[in-house]
Write a structure and sequence with these properties.
Length: 346
């Protein structure tokens, strides 16, 4: 910048906000993510109630709020719904971004020697909403910075909301002091929706897209696309495009043909612990009784750990259920097995 003419440098310099309060326009929120557009079911009822309480009384209800769950189940929707509700009151300054964007901005501030501006920006908001916080794992220098940002916000009575794809104590290479702080307030999970909730979500999204589908097609989609709400929305988007471009009534056969690749992929992802255990036993040539038994020889322990790791990766079963399937082991054993396999993979 110093080598550029003064006027040209002025054009290329990104303005830094040095004032105490951050404008809401500094951060992007999707206006369609509201509490009104979120479909509540048994799988997300508690998470929704917690988020609504935080939206009503930031930093007074649950602080911090830590939510975890699989991909495409509504964490981002609820997080941005809190942000949108807070902004609609005109009382609060909101920062919403992913941990990756937060990290990149920190690195940029570090390189340009603008850490003071970075800290001012994020330590003077009323609500800090960080998505995909699991990406903090292993980033030691950034964890140090985030630790102090967290403390500053918490001690000054500001709301912190973190979302992750796994519980805090399962985030690999995350400092214990951060784990304990993430668990200070309320920890809630969000599960895959049941059939009735999936039907309600599909109806809600179809109405928003202004498309009308037969109940038979709705039930078919809810049955076949079951693990991810984003996939359901993607399926509806494809159907809506077809309906707009092809002047032909959609029937069940046409929908199945239109979504053949998505339905095939969804079928491939449906795997349970029993199937995993059988495949692992076949591959390592050990008996099922040995896999779930108490013997600890290396020829059995390693396949057992691999089976636990695959079960944790490919199913949505909670840790306790996976441990129960392996002879009644506790969740700590499953976590240890997953870490051992990840270390060996590295």
């Amino acid at each position: 910048d110093q080598e550029l003419p003064e006027e040209q440098a002025a054009e290329h310099t990104v303005p830094i906000h040095t004032h105490k309060k951050v404008r809401a326009t500094d951060f992007t929120l999707n206006q369609k993510y509201t509490f009104e557009s979120f479909v509540v079911g048994s799988s997300n009822e508690f998470a929704h109630a917690a988020c609504w309480a935080v939206a009503q009384s930031p930093a007074k209800a649950y602080n911090p709020l830590f939510m975890y769950g699989g991909v495409g189940l509504g964490k981002t929707h609820l997080m941005q719904a809190i942000g949108n509700h807070a902004l609609s009151t005109g009382k609060y300054k909101v920062a919403y971004l992913s941990s990756e964007a937060f990290t990149n901005e920190y690195i940029d501030a570090l390189l340009k020697q603008r850490l003071v501006n970075f800290r001012q920006k994020y330590r003077n908001v009323d609500l800090l909403l960080i998505d995909d916080i699991q990406f903090l794992g292993g980033k030691d220098q950034f964890q140090e910075e985030f630790f102090h940002t967290f403390n500053d916000l918490f001690e000054s009575g500001r709301q912190i909301f973190l979302a992750s794809d796994r519980p805090a104590n399962e985030i690999e290479r995350l400092e214990n002091r951060l784990i304990s702080r993430f668990q200070w307030g309320l920890v809630t999970d969000i599960q895959a929706p049941d059939f009735e909730t999936r039907v309600a979500i599909l109806r809600n999204k179809a109405a928003a897209m202004n498309i009308s589908l037969d109940p038979e097609i709705m039930n078919f989609l809810a049955e076949r696309v079951s693990r991810n709400v984003r996939r359901m929305e993607g399926a509806l988007t494809r159907i809506a495009s077809y309906d707009a471009l092809i002047n032909q009534k959609l029937d069940l056969e046409a929908v199945e043909r239109l979504l053949s690749d998505l339905l095939h992929e969804e079928t491939l992802t449906k795997v349970n612990v029993d199937q995993i255990q059988k495949k692992v036993c076949d591959f390592y040539q050990i008996r099922f009784s040995e896999l779930i038994g108490r013997r600890r020889t290396s020829a059995i322990v390693f396949p057992r750990q691999v089976a636990m790791y695959i079960s944790r990766t490919l199913t949505s079963d909670p840790l306790k259920a996976i441990g129960d399937a392996f002879g009644g082991r506790d969740h700590g054993t499953v976590i240890h097995a997953c870490k051992q396999v990840e270390n060996m993979m590295e």
